[in-house]
Design goal:
Blueprint lengths: L1 E2 L5 E2 L15 H8 L18 E2 L5 E5 L4 H6 L6 H12 L7 E5 L6 E3 L6 E3 L4 H18 L3 E5 L1 H8 L5 H4 L4 E2 L7 E5 L2 H6 L3 H18 L2
Parallel strand pairs: 4-5, 4-8, 8-10
Antiparallel strand pairs: 1-2, 3-5, 6-7, 9-10
């Protein structure tokens, strides 16, 4: 913290940039991300959950943040939402081994209702997502995918700005801002499908959007 006027405290900026390596590929960035303190979320999370997958993927998928199981295992999309996403990718005829999976925010944000109780997901703030954006930008630069699939509102706002709305913007390929030739396709997060009152329809919509991404990546 730095001192402000009249003895008030001015919070330090949220920004992961100082923690990025000056050079190197995905392995170097993954190692550096393990020590990231670019926002306060690192204090309670178990680990930094960096992206995983094909370093030359045609399709890169961006979710919100790690969940409880991802935080424990250190890998993105290994919990219930990840299993549903894997199923949806298969139905959309996308080989998961040819994709790269990551999140807009690399640390798990949660609340605990009582001691010893399950950790409950809490949505990251826009400030936290923007602090973590340098890691996501580095992944996009290093993987250089043909198509980026944004899964849900946090990922969409991180890449497309605060006016992004899943319902209005989903399922239509459009140019990714500041990216040469990369397309972006928005859809719902798999966890939203799991929470949906009409899970069958929500899942069908996710698969349909992934099929759009598959065609755009050809």
């Amino acid at each position: 913290m730095t001192a402000g006027t009249a003895g008030s405290a001015v919070p330090e900026p949220y920004d992961a940039t100082p923690f990025l390596p000056a050079r190197g590929g995905l392995p170097a960035h993954r190692r550096a991300a393990a020590d990231c303190q670019g926002c306060p979320l690192y204090r309670d999370a178990s680990v930094t959950v960096f992206g995983r997958g094909n370093a030359h993927a045609r399709i890169l998928l961006v979710g919100e943040q790690p969940g409880d199981q991802e935080d424990r295992e250190g890998e993105p999309f290994v919990g219930p939402a990840g299993r549903l996403l894997s199923k949806a990718l298969r139905e959309a005829q996308i080989d998961e081994e040819d994709t790269y999976l990551t999140n807009a925010v690399k640390h798990f944000k949660f609340t605990v209702k009582a001691p010893g109780k399950r950790r409950i997901h809490k949505a990251p703030s826009l400030r936290e997502a923007l602090a973590c954006r340098p890691w996501l930008e580095a992944e996009l630069r290093l993987v250089d995918p043909a198509v980026v699939v944004v899964l849900g509102a946090t990922a969409g706002r991180s890449l497309l700005g605060p006016s992004f709305r899943v319902g209005a913007d989903r399922g239509v390929p459009r140019p990714l801002p500041d990216a040469d030739g990369t397309q972006v396709v928005a859809t719902v997060h798999p966890s939203a499908v799991l929470r949906s009152d009409d899970r069958e329809a929500a899942y069908a919509g996710l698969v349909a959007d992934l099929r759009v991404a598959a065609r755009a990546a050809r």
